[in-house]
Specification:
The protein has helices spanning 4-14, 37-44, 102-109; strands spanning 20-31, 47-53, 56-62, 69-78, 83-89, 92-98, 112-119, 124-132. It is α+β, with helices and mostly antiparallel strands. It has a single domain, classed as Lipocalin (Beta Barrel), CATH 2.40.128. Strands 1-2-3-4-5-6-7-8 form an eight-stranded antiparallel beta barrel. The chain is globular and about 65 Å long. The model is unreliable at 7-15 (pLDDT under 50).
Length: 134
Amino acid sequence: MTRLLPVVFALLTATPALAESYACTVQDFTTFSRDDTGFIEANKRKTYDLTIDGDTITLAMHSQDFESNTYSYTVTRRAFLDTIARRADSSGVNLLVLPPRPAATLARDGHFSATLSVQSNHYTNSWLLACKAP
């Protein structure tokens, strides 16, 4: 039996973790670029598919008002209270912050919150997302 334990452990650790997928809606949106109620309401109508796969988080945005897109974020920090993922492009920095164990929060509360912030030198947009199982 003791010889079998290392083999079982090796098999369990070699098995890739399954990606976690969630459906998110916008609970709130704020911007520091303009006071345009149409822009704000259009951003509140967005929906997101969030997939966590190791140190990569994929966020697919769906919208009737904007061109839909999909971006990958790299986890840069896992802490007691938050997991922080980052994406940089030519127009600024995007941060995605979510709980360290979304599945556990989902099991306990029925949903979890995440924030998405897009920041440039002339604007900042932030979405508060409510995420649940798809």
